[in-house]
UniProtKB/TrEMBL annotation:
Protein name: Aminopeptidase N-like N-terminal domain-containing protein
Aminopeptidase N-like N-terminal domain segment(s): 19-164
SUPFAM superfamilies: Leukotriene A4 hydrolase N-terminal domain
PANTHER family in the cross-refs: LEUKOTRIENE A-4 HYDROLASE
Upper classification of the organism: Eukaryota, Viridiplantae, Streptophyta, Embryophyta, Tracheophyta
Gene3D superfamilies tied to this protein: tricorn interacting facor f3 domain
Top-level taxon in the UniProt lineage: Eukaryota
InterPro entries assigned: Aminopeptidase_N-like_N, Aminopeptidase_N-like_N_sf, M1_LTA4H
Length: 238
C-alpha cells in the first residue's frame, strides 16, 4: 500500500468515496457539531479502509444497512500535519456509517460569539476547509484525488439560517425518527430529543457535482441576502 497524497492517510489500493450523507446538529453553547456521516465507496471493499480525521471524537462505526458495529482503530497521537489516522475494517462493504462529534479546536470551524457579530444578538459559524481541514469537520479521504457528491441535514436554532456550497432543498421542522438511519442511538445522550427540540429547524442541502473535500463549505448565523441577478444572490450577516 502507498499513500495517494503525502498530506493524507488515503491509500492507493482503497476505493475512493463517491458520496457522503451528513446529519449535523449544531451546539453553539459548546462550539461543537454532533454528527454522522455515511460514506459510499466506488466499489465494495474488504479489509482496512484509511480515513483522515483531526480533532474528532469517533463514537461508533457501523454498517449503514444493519447498524451493527464495525471494527475500527484511531491512532493515539496526532500527526502534526495529517491529524489522526482512522482505520475501519470492512467485509465487502460499499458504504460505512461513522458517528462522531467535532471539537471547539477544529481547524476548519470558526465559531463566533454574539458580541463578535454585526447585530451582536446571535452566534455565527463558518468553515474554511482548504487545504486539508475538511477532516476536522467529518472523517473523509481528505485529498483532491477524491471527488465526492454530498447531501446534508443541518439542524440549527430557528432564528438562524444556513448557506452551503450546495443546492438548498428545504427548510423545515425536524422530523421524529429521521436520524435513526444515522445511528443516533450511538451517542451517550438522547440525540433524538436534541434533534427534535423546540426552537430547532432543519435545512437540507445537496451537491450533485463531484468536488474535492476542500470545497465543502457552510455558514450558519443571522444571515440575509440580496438578489443581484436572475440566478445570483449575495449572502452576508443580516
Amino acid at each position: 500500500m502507498a499513500p495517494i497524497d503525502p498530506h493524507s492517510f488515503t491509500e492507493s489500493t482503497h476505493p475512493l468515496t463517491t458520496h457522503i450523507s451528513l446529519s449535523l446538529y449544531f451546539d453553539f453553547s459548546s462550539s461543537t457539531i454532533h454528527a454522522a456521516a455515511i460514506l459510499t465507496l466506488a466499489s465494495p471493499h474488504a479489509g482496512p479502509l484509511s480515513l483522515d480525521t483531526r480533532s474528532l471524537t469517533i463514537h461508533q462505526v457501523l454498517d449503514p444497512q444493519t447498524l451493527t458495529p464495525l471494527p475500527f482503530t484511531l491512532s493515539p497521537t496526532d500527526d502534526p500535519i495529517k491529524g489522526r489516522h482512522l482505520i475501519v475494517t470492512l467485509s465487502d462493504h460499499s458504504s460505512v456509517l461513522i458517528v462522531f462529534s467535532t471539537s471547539p479546536s477544529s481547524s476548519a470551524l470558526q465559531w463566533l460569539s454574539p458580541p463578535q457579530t454585526f447585530n451582536k444578538l446571535h452566534p455565527f459559524v463558518y468553515t474554511q476547509c482548504q487545504a486539508i481541514h475538511a477532516r476536522s469537520v467529518f472523517p473523509c479521504q481528505d485529498t483532491p484525488a477524491a471527488r465526492v457528491r454530498y447531501k446534508a441535514l443541518i439542524n440549527i436554532p430557528r432564528q438562524l439560517s444556513a448557506v452551503m456550497a450546495a443546492r438548498h432543498e428545504d427548510r423545515r421542522p425536524p422530523v421524529a425518527g429521521e436520524t435513526k438511519a444515522f445511528g443516533s442511538s450511538c451517542f451517550d445522550f438522547d440525540y433524538e430529543s436534541l434533534w427534535c427540540a423546540d426552537g430547532r429547524v432543519v435545512e437540507e442541502f445537496e451537491m450533485n457535482q463531484p468536488v474535492p473535500p476542500y470545497l465543502f463549505a457552510f455558514a450558519v448565523g443571522e444571515l440575509g441576502f440580496r438578489e443581484v441577478g436572475p440566478r445570483t444572490r449575495v449572502y452576508a450577516e443580516s
